[in-house]
Amino acid sequence: MDNGKQKNKKLTTASGRPYVENENTMTIGPRGPILLQDYILHEKMAHFNRERIPERVVHAKGTGAFGTFEVTNDITKYTRAKLFSKVGNKCRVFVRFSTVGGEKGSADSERDPRGFAVKLYTEDGNWDLVGNNTPVFFVKDPKKFGDFIHTQKREPETNLKSPTMMWDFWSLNPESLHQVMILMSDRGTPFSYRNMNGYGSHTYSMINKKNEKIWVKFHFKTVQGIKNFTGPNAKEMRGIDPDHAQRDLVDAIKNKDFPKWALKIQVMTDEQAKNFRFNPFDLTKIWPHTDFPLIDVGTMELNELPANYFAEVEQSAFAPAHIVDGISYSPDKMLQGRLLSYPDAHRYRLGVNYEQIPVNKCPFAVNNYQRDGHMRVDGNSGSNPNYWPNSFDDIYTDESYKESPMNLDSTVADWYNRNAPGEDDHYTQAGWLFNKAMNEQDRKNLIANIIDAMSGITGPKRDLIINRQLCHFFRADEKLGIGVAQGLGVDLNSIMNELKAAPQHA
Q1: Which residue in 3, 22, 24, 59 is the catalytic one?
Q2: Fewest Cβ atoms nearer than 10 Å: which of 122, 232, 444, 489?
Q3: 163 domain-assigned
Q4: Contact of 323 with 329, CB cutoff 8 Å
Q5: How far apart are CA 447 and CA 288, in angstroms?
Q6: Mean pLDDT computed over every residue of the chain
Q7: Is the pTM of this model over 0.90?
Q8: What is the mean pLDDT of residues 203-219?
Q9: Is 386 among the residues known to form the active site?
Q10: At what angle do helices 462-476 and 163-172 cross, to 10 degrees?
Q11: How far is the C-alpha of 327 from the C-alpha of 414, rounded, in Å?
């Protein structure tokens, strides 16, 4: 049957051999058994069996788009990064949005943080700014990350999601309170990826041409405005369209309603960091805007959909380890842990040569001595030497990119208590969030969402877990604690007695 298309591409195997029978398997007679020699059957089935690469452990469900970033303001006094060398500079970007805890087939409107990962293809290499739609996180030490994620996944016995696991962990880790309150607010159910902010979350550093270093936080502010589902609306959308957020982004770009974000930074000197009330490298804390105001940097626009989801979204790989000259790291413990774990996850999922995949490949010159490994697809550097130094090639080290030495405050290595004095205020910023950042309706919705979520706690430890978590809510704000306790039918007198007796951290 002629479908009207010009037939100019022969059907071939992956090795290039043309073949005809793509639908009928070779058999002995019309009803006989299949012949082992029908290689086309084996090739089709073997490839089909391997179509699914390992799912991301976190951020499994996501979507993405290409676009541009343009520098609109001069920040050269903070950084020597070539991207920011002059106003008007542009680079291509790829952004992947995601939910965090759900599987690849989960609903977009689940109550969950949202991943916000940006890959900027700069002339000095790819820069990955990998964060969430929240400026803080649940834990501040990377040793706790795997345990936390286990509580957001499925319970070992039943393979079901477990509110008991979640709240047990949170109640035992009061450092999570700030992020828990954001998650339980309407910010935990964004209407779409276009209608939420993105944050680098961690503290990074910037280095200028004088080798002066400042600490920095990155904020992508949505130009479309913040828009969230309420809890009931989010539940309804899960049944109407579980792919709502992905569809919204695809439709917007197809209709040329290109979403935009304004990149802004906060900066802090080393002296300010030493005297700041909170540890500025603690991922569970924000830097108040009144103390460290936002500085305009540039604008990001998404205007190009991927040609193939698997090739460009599923195989995209982001790592906060991927920085460029003029941008560097900080003593943020969670950031330090991610510098190792993210590239390692990609090597497991996509292979050691994952940065050769087109969506991850630096579009400018790449020269190094990495060789071999699974899926090496770039010629493996031909006959060039695979060691350094050597007498044959012309690769050299450019000393202008060398960073100044790092000054450390201590020479003592130890397992430092994340809840030691000076690190154990888990309640002040959570209280600010409730009283200053939220309006009355936000507070009502937060309390209702917490009651709904904690009502799922079951088992013999139910009362213990609920009371322990209520103590955290009371320490953040008494009205919050009372509202949740009343909604759960808990005796307020028993909570008050526990508050007097219990330590304030675990």
Answers
A1: 59
A2: 489
A3: no
A4: yes
A5: 24
A6: 93
A7: yes
A8: 97
A9: no
A10: 50
A11: 28
